[in-house]
Amino acid sequence: MTVPNVIPNGSLAASQLRVTPASPLFLREDEIRRGIELLYFGYTAMIRGADAILDAQGLGRAHHRALYFIARRSGLSVGELIGLLGITKQSLGRVLSELQARGLVEQMVGTADRRQRLLRLTTTGAAMEARLFAELERSMARGYAEAGQQAVSGFWAVLMGLVPPDDRARVEALQD
Amino acid sequence: MTVPNVIPNGSLAASQLRVTPASPLFLREDEIRRGIELLYFGYTAMIRGADAILDAQGLGRAHHRALYFIARRSGLSVGELIGLLGITKQSLGRVLSELQARGLVEQMVGTADRRQRLLRLTTTGAAMEARLFAELERSMARGYAEAGQQAVSGFWAVLMGLVPPDDRARVEALQD
DNA sequence: CCAGATATGTCAACATGACTGTCCCAAATG
DNA sequence: CATTTGGGACAGTCATGTTGACATATCTGG
Hints:
The structure is a homodimer of 176-residue chains. Chain A has helices spanning 29-57, 61-72, 78-85, 89-101, 123-147, 149-162, 165-173; strands at 6-8, 26-28, 76-77, 105-109, 117-121. The first copy, chain A, has 176 residues and is mostly helical. Chain A has a domain at 28-137: Arc Repressor Mutant, subunit A. The first copy, chain A, starts with 5 loop residues before the first strand and ends with a helix. Chains A and B meet through helix 1, helix 2, helix 5 and helix 6 of A and helix 1, helix 2, helix 5 and helix 6 of B. Chain A binds a DNA duplex (30 and 30 nucleotides) through helix 4.
């Protein structure tokens, strides 16, 4: 690698380096790469268990994400789900119709706005989502446990810091 | 949601709940879901900037991952790269031959084992990887900065906790 | 030194999940 | 009533993963 080990960055908080707190900070490339790699491998590892279940059912990650958010915000509209997933109407359309065909998801006409289709899980769908969630939970709980509760707030803080400020409200909104 | 708010977990460290440290711990579902969601949205957000560059070049994330790890471990073998990416030889083959055709990656016959093809970036490839890395870095540095250095070790700790113990050595090995 | 294991490459077929573009309908909104 | 909005449907494309089968060069153990 020819990229220098030390990278200038205008306005960062204190790092492990011995830098006076008020000075411009230099983050070492290794620290950045470590974050990138842990994010990649950690995310992959967390998903792995659920992937196996999905595979056995002939479903994919796209189905899981839809089930997850419908479970999380029962009664959300198709448009809201599209916004959370960040995909197009056409892409979601296929996933959603498969989930409906399997009897995992059902629609209701919106009450306030009758154009909307409000989504919720069927009993079967809720059971499936619970199985998938249990896998994610097992992994995440282990991560929390191994790191300790003190680490968890740092974990949250950095991840939220990755999300562009304009998008944060949407993420926070999931926390009821 | 019909899943209970409180989930039993055998052997976890202290949480925010008022639980005596030695007792079995109960992690609240919200804390788990928050981790899952932040991991999803944070990862997506970090990648976004690089995705735009890749798109403009007609490359995809698969190419980026290959470039990233070749940059990180210059001279690694095809088999090692397959192991890091967790994909099949055939999947990597396509990506790798595209990168070679574009003059971003080159191969050398292994010295110790002449069956191996050792991979490294060309000058052009290193420049491309540096551009992509700069985007990831921008995002990650902002996350670190907003959270503060103290949070970063918690961030690392939880993510490493997500990785199954057997796989951790491989992740650590990237840190030279 | 030879038989078998290993590292890599390649061809072919297929599945998933994204995309764009277009057209349509029903309901809300002004 | 005209326009906008929420949603559905159809068609085609692309990126990236998969299996399976086979080839070739090289290493390694008996």
